[in-house]
Structures are given as C-alpha cells and as structure tokens.
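Recap from last week: sequence in, structure out.
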Amino acid sequence: FVERPPNVDLVVRACQNRRIAAAQDEPGLLFDLIDAQPEQGRVTVTIPAAPGRKARAATLAIRFALVILRRPCNGADPALPETVSVTLVDVREVSQPEDGSEPVHWRLLTTHGVATLTDARRIVDLYRTRWIIEEFFRTLKSAGFDIEAADLGDPHAMINFVAAATIAAVTIKQLVQARDGNTDQLLSDAFDPDDQPIIEAISAKLEGKTERQRNPYPIGTLAFAAWVIARLGGWTGYYGKPGPKVMRIGLAEFNAIKVGTTLKLLDV
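Predicted structure tokens:
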C-alpha cells in the first residue's frame, strides 16, 4: 500500500487478522474492529455459476471503516512507515445458500475513498471483476493456449506469441460471456464484418431438426456467433455450457474455414 504508484489504487482481499492502530476502547485487530461496526446497508448481486455451484442472487450486508494498519513485526522493511491508512469494506451474505455452498464473506482493503454505501458497492463491483480476470488468464494458460509451456527462446517471438494469444483469449472470453444471450453485444464486437456471412452459413449448416439443435439467437449478435463457434468446438447443444476450451477449438475451426473461403483451387 505504501509503495504503490500515485496514479494507482488498490483493492486487496484481506486474509490475515492484521494488527491495527486503535483507540483504547477499540479492538486492536482488523477483523475484530470491522465485526464491531454496524451495517451501513445491503446490496443484492448475482453470484455467477461455478463448477458444483449454480448461479444465485445474494443479499450482502456491507460494513466499512477507515483502519490504520501497523507495519508487520517480522520481515518488513524497517524503512517503511510505522502505519498506513486504508479503508476496510466488509461484505457478508446474510443467509445460507440453498445449494449448501459457503456464504460470501469478503474483507476488502482499499486505497479508494469510501464514504457512502454507493462507494462501498463500487469497491465490491471492482473486486468482483477478478472472476473475469482469472478466467482470462486461465484461457491464456491451462484452458486455452498453454503459454507457459511455449518453447520459444527468442524473447521477441515470445512477446509476439503472447500478444496474439491475448487477442484470441479476449475473443474467447467474449464468446463465453455471450453464450447465453445476456450481454447484448453485436457480432462485430469480436469479428470482422466479412466474417458474418461465413458465420451465418455455418450456422445454417450446423442446425439440426430439434429445437435445441437450432441457433436461438438473433443474426448479427455475438450470442449467435458464440453458438456457432461452440458447435464447431464440439458442443452438441444438449449437455452443459461451452467453456473456453470448447470456444478455443471452435475459433480455430472457424479461422480454418475462413481461410478456406479465400482459396481459389484452379490447379490442384
């Protein structure tokens, strides 16, 4: 917190019950202090689905307070100041989830100013974007392009590979988010204009006779394209939802088809 650049703010989930500077009648530990604060309000958010967990609406009780963290006793640079002031935003789900999963409880330390419930909600929303960030890096790594295993000795080649993989990973992430038709994005948000007639032709070719084998989304939407790419990636339309691995395979298949449409095989 002390050494952050002046143009950077932080939101960090606290996992340790840190020592704090407190008045004589106040607790001297971070969690004890926030536990003693009254609720400043409640907000309702959607907790997205995850393996073994269904999506659900969660009502969260919000507490926040300015806290003064003490420098750790062991291992800290003695040149650092004795204390640093940050805000702690405490977020707790008020009821037990019906699926038996653990209720949400986040303790978020931030350098952002928090004076109102609206400010606190903004911190919660900022923290929740970590899911998108984690899924993006998962696509770059184990669920997609496995960049950590790339055997490239030339640093410039590695930079070019990671840049290309990053662009593809963003497209894959957009397709995963659009697969249920909830993002209102257009096909042009992730594809070139020339890609649309190819995607429409593939959709018509892939559609089957049953309702679940037909593309349910409007032509020109990213959800329409996501259905096509998922089918190309091996998704049948019947079981589960297509994830980044399926979208990666499907996007590679689509790009191969796209290249094929440009070939003129006059002399084979």
